[in-house]
Amino acid sequence: MILLTTVVFVGIIGGITKFLITPKYSSTAQLYVVSKSGLSQLSDLTMGNQLTQDYMVIVESRPVLEKVISNLKLDLDYKELKEKISIENPADTRIMQISVSDEDPEKAKEMTQELAEVTAKTVSRKMDVKAPTIIENAYLADEPDSPNLLKNVIIGALLGFILASAVIIVRHMMNDTIRKEEDIEKYLGINTLAKLPLAKGEKKRTKKLGRQGKGHEKN
């Protein structure tokens, strides 16, 4: 039962992942944040980190997103585009990674590249700092990022195993069938004085007790 349930869950989860969930692709561009010149190395790094945090906010600002939508003529509003974007800043670096996820890998690449370029131009125009440099252009993804078939199959197998095991344990704990002498004393509260051996060819019978059955036996 456990093995069968596990296999069934693996098949169901795998089928849903493979045929019902639309895969999504992501593309990433990297920008290098340059601070003002004339600073010490430590001050330059600190200033660069602070600017990176500021730029991460600018990337998802409404003017930047609406500019990207206008340039690419996207059928999206800025909130929908914002949900597709993720921004990261690796620790102790002045690198800003901009990623965009979409069902179309080509569109994901176009939006990522345009977002990086619009961000750089906006920073240069609106802030008194040098525009960040695009050190890695957006790339075309050849494999979807989600859904993860292997991960979902493993989750399905665990769910099937746990569910089947739970059902078996509960059924075992709730089973009050009399199978041996100790069960008579446990369920009926009486002692066994003797037992008759089975005749040749006769099968052993068990009796399942309910509330009425228990009361009848006591009477």
Write a compact overview of the structure shown:
The chain is 54% helix and 13% strand. It is built from eight helices and six strands. It has helices spanning 2-20, 41-59, 62-72, 78-83, 105-126, 149-174, 181-188, 211-218, and strands at 25-32, 85-88, 95-102, 133-136, 177-178, 207-208.
Describe the structure.
- The protein has 219 residues and is α+β, with helices and mostly antiparallel strands.
- It has three domains: 1-21 and 147-174, no CATH class; 23-136, EIF_2_alpha (Alpha-Beta Plaits), CATH 3.30.70.1130; 179-219, no CATH class.
- Helices cover 54% and strands 13% of the residues.
- The longest helix has 26 residues, at 149-174.
- The chain starts with a helix and ends with a helix.
Helix content: 40-55%
Uncertain runs are: 38-42, 211-219
Distance between the termini: 39 Å
Overall 3D shape = elongated
CATH domain class of the largest domain: Alpha Beta
What would the average pLDDT be, to the nearest integer? Answer: 82
